[in-house]
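Late entry, written up from scratch paper. The run itself happened at the end of the previous shift, but nothing got recorded in the book at the time, so transcribing now.
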Amino acid sequence: MTEFITVATFNFAHEMMVLRTILDREGIPYLFQNENLIAIDPLASLAYGGIQLKVHPNDLEKVQNIINDLNNHLKIV
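Output as recorded:
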């Protein structure tokens, strides 16, 4: 089994909400590691390395294109 890989890191939970909506709409499996921990204690973000977006390697290029498109318009990552 191939493990998911980290594509992006966010400092706060609100920074990833638009991306979550797009990934859900596109049907791309993902995991936001440390999401709940940092949502409860935002100051723990630095200690735990932020909220990490992890995706399957097969979806890596598609997700990177989505992030790049968002960065061109919203500057979120």
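The beta strands are 5-10, 30-33, 51-55.
(Scratch paper discarded after transcription.)
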